[in-house]
Design brief:
- The structure holds two protein chains of two kinds.
- Chain A is an alpha+beta fold.
- Chain A has one domain: Ubiquitin-like (UB roll).
- Helices cover 21% and strands 24% of the residues of chain A.
- Chain A has three helices and five strands, in the order βαβααβββ.
- The termini of chain A are far apart.
- Chain B is mainly beta.
- The chains are: A alpha+beta, B mainly beta.
- The interface between A and B is medium-sized, with 19 and 18 residues.
Chain lengths: 91, 342
């Protein structure tokens, strides 16, 4: 089971849920594809047309930023918790 | 903002779509919907649709998106253009990196124009300062398969087969920043505008000049004449007088401030042979900048004009620019002004 915690701006796609569960996902790319299947529209907010995580979106796997791991190819394991958050930009 | 038919008193609502850049918004007269290009700095671009004059909004189910095989990714939607009355549901969108998208369901889903995506010179297109943007879409009112589009800084293109093929239309348009000053493509067109009663007469504000074509873009005539500058962004054509057009000159590409510190709209009554200043009601000293979609003409009689500035002012004229009324001094930077009667 992978738990995905959604920032406020993404919860509308998931019917208001703060957290959703996926039975499995081999990596972040697969996770996003599954999220898009269950919650249409959410995928394009996390990744661009080429499937790359958007420049000002941070995806953390168990508190580690995926940009310091393998980006979209960061592997996931049963029990992982993924946070999707907007980065601090500007100001 | 809404007003009655007198266009004198305006009511404000909003802000709508908070937190998003709105590069363009348009009223679709065919079904009463408003379509807006929205770009979140975090969550990317989409098209939002309101069917109740802005009270509520829904995103496109399938926003404009390049196929993976293209290697491209939509950065923002620059322009939205509902098609003619004869094509209900058809809407076009121009995006960055420059390409055209088409919807057949009022903006809910979009498909890329493959011919433009695969245009053979595409790899040589170079972005202008604002980005490689397809910012203007003109559709012939009686020949729906003919469209003109404009891309900074690639130039003007035309299709006569509904987008199956495109050709450049930049003859006689100066590209001073190129070694060949009159290349086939690479010109920095800022905006095109027409009057629907004379769709083959196209007015053109360019980085390097102001032009007019009398033959649907086959040739361009330099009409800068007595304008204080050849540089500016928006251009608009009067709703009732096809030979009357309006521009907002800035000093030049390295100094984008109004000539002599005095912003003015300039108009012509004779298709660009001669221009005159339209500044009654505008400040005597002002460093306003109006972006390419920041000025628009309505379809009323007399024609009304509206412009918004990057410093948050909004002005309206009910008399073809002969006098101006300040509607707002307190907006954030204005990217786009659209107007329609409902």
């Amino acid at each position: 089971m992978i738990r995905v915690r959604l920032t406020a701006q993404l919860r509308d796609y998931a019917h208001g849920a703060r957290e959703v569960e996926l039975d499995s996902a081999s990596n972040l790319r697969t996770m996003v594809n599954k999220l898009e299947r269950y919650y249409p529209g959410i995928g394009g907010r996390i990744v661009d047309d080429q499937g790359n995580i958007r420049a000002h979106v941070n995806v953390f796997v168990n508190s580690e930023n995926s940009r310091e791991l393998k980006n979209e190819n960061t592997p996931l394991r049963d029990g992982d918790v993924v946070h999707i958050l907007p980065s601090v930009a500007g100001g | 903002m809404t007003s009655d038919s007198k266009r004198k008193e305006w009511k404000v609502s909003g802000p709508h779509l908070k937190g998003n850049e709105i590069y363009h918004m348009v009223y679709d007269r065919r079904n009463g919907a408003i379509l807006a290009s929205t770009t979140s700095g975090h969550w990317g671009p989409t098209v939002a649709i309101s069917e109740d004059m802005g009270k509520t909004w829904k995103e496109s189910k399938t926003p404009p998106k390049f196929p993976k095989s293209s290697g491209l990714s939509v950065a923002r939607v620059w322009h939205i253009k509902p098609a003619s009355e004869d094509e209900p549901g058809v809407v076009y969108a121009g995006v960055e990196p420059a390409c055209l998208f088409k919807s057949k369901d009022g903006g809910r889903s979009w498909k890329v124009n493959v011919s433009m995506m695969k245009q053979k010179t595409r790899k040589k297109w170079q972005a202008g300062g604002g980005g490689l943007c397809l910012h203007t879409i003109l559709q012939h009112p009686r020949r729906p398969n003919r469209m003109h589009i404009a891309i900074s800084s690639v130039g003007t293109m035309r299709t006569d087969d509904g987008g199956e093929s495109w050709r450049f239309q930049n003859r006689n348009v100066l590209a001073e920043f190129q070694p060949n000053k009159y290349p086939e493509y690479g010109q920095c067109v800022h905006k095109l505008a027409t009057n629907p009663s004379k769709p083959d007469v196209i007015f053109h504000q360019n980085h390097c000049g102001v032009y007019r074509s009398d033959n649907a873009g086959e040739d361009w005539i330099d009409i800068r004449n007595n304008l204080p500058s050849r540089f500016g962004f928006p251009i608009a054509v009067d709703a009732n007088e096809p030979g009357r057009a309006y521009v907002a000159p800035l000093e030049g590409d390295f100094s984008r401030i109004p000539p002599s510190g005095h912003f003015a709209i300039w108009g012509t009554d004779n298709s660009g042979k001669e221009w005159f200043k339209l500044d009654e009601g505008l400040p005597s000293m002002s460093y306003y900048t109006v972006l390419r979609d920041g000025m628009v003409a309505d379809q009323e009689d007399p024609c009304g004009l509206y412009f918004g500035t990057t410093t948050g002012q909004l002005y309206a004229s009910r008399d073809q620019g002969n006098s101006w009324q300040n509607l707002s001094d307190w907006l954030p930077p204005v990217f786009s002004v659209s107007v329609s009667s409902t």
